[in-house]
């Protein structure tokens, strides 16, 4: 990886285990500021755990995470979670309508989201205003993911963590979301870490890629590494996904 | 009632035993244990109460109330093992409920400060509080399990643990209070309360029995509200650590 970039997040010998189960093993590496880094690897590699740690939902068992050169523990948890936003893979919704869900980040701070703002966020993710008062429980998987992305954007986080946010979307919607994320990155210099199982997406959207397997960081570098992996396990993984 | 006539009431135990045996319900052992325990416990309580009433000592009243709180705490804590320090939280809830309700009853001279009034009323209020605590803990732990993703979502967006758990807490508090409120709506129409029935059978004036029952149902409303709120607000902070992470997620 090109270390001339300023790191937004740095992992220093980060490990995580639950009881005797080791989920992350000694991860050391940096996520460049203002760039899109994709996290790829088979299921159970520890990618989601790593993302949740950056948002402060989990803490390393050993090791340290630095956000903008400050240890993550120096941040007040609620401030950290607004600064480092996350769109969770399950796209959970609170009971109520779409606008209730979109208003959630603001209402947690005692602020309000105007209807016009809510419509704008919906349009950003490719949904029209007719969804505003629809019950969240009636949304399809893809629609939930879109609302979840819109809701994550409302905190205007400087670092955005995206956990397989396009897995339930059709091709057109995937392209729309990719365009939105690229705009956020280019226009607002938002640092993005994106977990994806779509290696083509990692190649075309990501500037950098981390390949994780069995809780370990196996290979990092510019996304083009997926075309010619140095590590034989990564090569096997890429071949397996592409066939 | 003589002991001979009392022994005839065992017919009511024989009926479920025979039915259980015939229909192979497998409840014979539990029925026998429940019967023996209730007879032994009630007789023991009867003799203890007689001793306490005769002595007239306030120390014995305090000991009886403490014993009730101890037994109720041990019973209720089984339902809240996932909550750290649940034993003292339940004990504190029951103590506060007892102090507040008896404080009002005795402070305003609603009941005389004698064992005959304090102990039975404490028993009813602590018993109700224990049931409410169990109902709350059952519902609260189920809510947390089924809404884990929503709680995590609110935390991930920068919400505090109190904001994250608010809906589950309120739902559990309401769910535990509903049976008390609902049963009071139909009291006297569907069922005659046990205490009132006992007084009437014992030869008391029905109007006076009703007056005492009203006292109890009003006190139960305070008991229900205090128990649910106290146990609720004492419980939820222990589900999170200082970094505002759900401990179950760790």
Automatic annotation (TrEMBL), chain A:
One of its GO terms (molecular function) is ATP binding. PANTHER family: ABC TRANSPORTER I FAMILY MEMBER 17. SMART domains: AAA. The keyword Lipid biosynthesis does not apply. Keywords: ATP-binding, Nucleotide-binding, Transport. CDD domains: ABC_PstB_phosphate_transporter. Residues 9-238 form the ABC transporter domain. It comes from Lysinibacillus contaminans. InterPro entries: AAA+_ATPase, ABC_transporter-like_ATP-bd, ABC_transporter-like_CS, P-loop_NTPase, PstB-like. This is Amino acid ABC transporter ATP-binding protein. It comes from the Bacteria. PROSITE patterns: ABC_TRANSPORTER_1, ABC_TRANSPORTER_2.
From TrEMBL, chain B:
InterPro entries: UPF0014_fam. It comes from the Bacteria. The chain crosses the membrane at residues 6-23, 35-53, 59-76, 88-111, 117-137, 214-236. It is a multi-pass membrane protein. This is Membrane protein. Its main location: membrane. It is found in: Membrane. It comes from Lysinibacillus contaminans. Keywords: Membrane, Transmembrane, Transmembrane helix. Belongs to the UPF0014 family.
